[in-house]
Amino acid sequence: MQFLGSRNDPDDFVLVTTVNFEKIVEMGNPISQAKIFQAQMADELIFIDLSVYKGEYQRAASLEILDKAARNIFLPLTIGGGVGSVEDIRTFLNHGADKVAINTKIIENPDLLRKASLKFGASTVVASIDYRVELDGNRYVYSQAGQAKQSFSPLEWAQECEKLGAGEILLTCINNDGLREGLDIPTIREVSDAVNIPVIAAGGCGLARHFSEGFTEGNADAVSAGTFFCFQDQNIMQTRSHVHNAGVNVRIRT
Amino acid sequence: MIGIVDYGMGNLLSVKNILDYLGEDNFVCHDPGDLARADRIILPGIGGFPDCVRALHENGFVAALNEAVLTQKKPIMGICLGMQVMARCGHEFEKVAGLGWFDAEVVNINTVNDRIKIPNVGWEEIQLNKNSPLFKRLPAKSDFYLVHSFFMKFDDDNAPEIDASYEVEGVKITAAVRKGNIFATQFHPEKSSDLGMTIMENFIDWQPAI
């Protein structure tokens, strides 16, 4: 669940979806949507504050959304966007987050990941990795919400993040983001097979089948989606049923 | 009135939030003396066993908890590390004595089976004791969210105190324990949506036979 100051009122943070990390579509109130996701049996919710690189960052707005979510949603909550220090992590945990997702700041300062993992436990720290696939098939990690190209591949960076103490990898393909044409299975499989920590695959789900492919062909431990659930009248319960019936062990009882 | 024990370890907020959501009076006990005002107690906890026990001692909570729970028989619920510290000892980093309310030891999951990925994070299908008053209105197999590398191991895998368990790689992992007025879960009811909320409601209504 990505959020950002609305274009009509930058102080009003709204739920948005993105296409290729560029086109931004404003959806509505993040907490109302989060309540629907909880009612439809989501396993976990990941909140990402996009305002850090796409708008005017307001820590208070992030914390307000987190506070409201924690008072209404009784699921594991992850927050990302604007996590730059051990103190920041403490602040987010104190406002109801169970985990933090960090992307740009651990690329700039890998020691932050090591310190965060030692301090709060590996299970509290999610390494978020965004990447693009180029025409020649090479893949490169990007930081700053898709704006800054790095010299290394998602596979290399995922392995490094595991060594530094990440508890999970959130792997997002920028090319597929918001297109609803399916996940980038080859990269998901390559990364999932190379690390011993859970990989959450993201970017591109448009059909329930794309979720089960993430598990059965991509060997992902989890699949995450924003556009898929926000845009169409897609029900998490129906999606879960499809994944279950494709032979993947997911919880189906409420 | 439910007292939530604050000894500097762990996420009290999510426990407080779910009690507020259920409309149940609660307060955070910063001081051992606060336990006198509580008729029920929740002992949360996240972190390492030795730090947790040390924090309980340093804040003077050990004597106060023993008084409230063992002498006054107030119902108590431990969550995650708050369950583990109720064991006689823990083996995280070093061997450290716990509260000793359960005749069990807290051991690393990998000492029993090293193929299990730790920390074990996520939802597990948990087998509940269907006669337990804490699991009223729940299916015998229910999914709950947990995050742990250590678990409370009894000498006897079928110890009567074990109220719930789950299996991974053939290992039976203790998921909840109950003895008299003491109940505790390894999983997080406050993070397990509707089913977790039912457990919280059951704890609020629980009248243990003493």
Structural class of chain B: alpha/beta
Q: What is the overall shape of chain B?
A: globular
Poorly predicted ranges of chain B (pLDDT <50, ≥5 residues)? none
Number of strands of chain A: 12
Task: Quote the distance from N terminus to C terminus of chain B.
Answer: 20 Å
Largest interface: A-B, 25 and 29 residues
Between the first and last Cα atoms of chain A, what is the distance in angstroms?
22 Å
- Largest sheet geometry of chain B: 9 strands, mixed
Radius of gyration of chain A: 17 Å
The count of helical stretches of chain A stands at 11
Total number of beta strands of chain B: 13
Brief sketch in words of this structure:
The complex is a heterodimer of chains A (254) and B (210). By secondary structure, chain A is an alpha/beta fold.
Structure overview:
- The complex is a heterodimer of chains A (254) and B (210).
- Chain A has 254 residues and is of the alpha/beta class.
- Chain A has 11 helices and 12 strands.
- In chain A, strands 1, 2, 3, 4, 5, 6, 7, 8, 9, 10, 11 and 12 form a 12-stranded mixed β-sheet that branches.
- In chain A, strand 10, helix 8 and strand 11 (199-202) form a beta-alpha-beta unit.
- The longest helix of chain A is centred in the first third of the chain and has 14 residues, at 59-72.
- The radius of gyration of chain A is 17 Å and the shape is globular.
- Chain B is of the alpha/beta class and 210 residues long.
- Helices cover 25% and strands 34% of the residues of chain B.
- In chain B, the strands form 2 sheets. Chain B has a 9-stranded mixed β-sheet.
- The radius of gyration of chain B is 16 Å and the shape is globular.
- The two termini of chain B are 20 Å apart.
- The model of chain B has no long low-confidence stretch (mean pLDDT 94).
- Classes of the chains: A alpha/beta (254), B alpha/beta (210).
- Chain A binds chain B through residues 38, 41, 43, 70-72, 74-76, 93-96, 98, 121-123, 167-168, 196-198, 251, 253-254, and chain B through 11, 13-14, 17-18, 20-21, 46-47, 117, 119, 121-123, 125, 139, 141-143, 145, 147, 190-197.
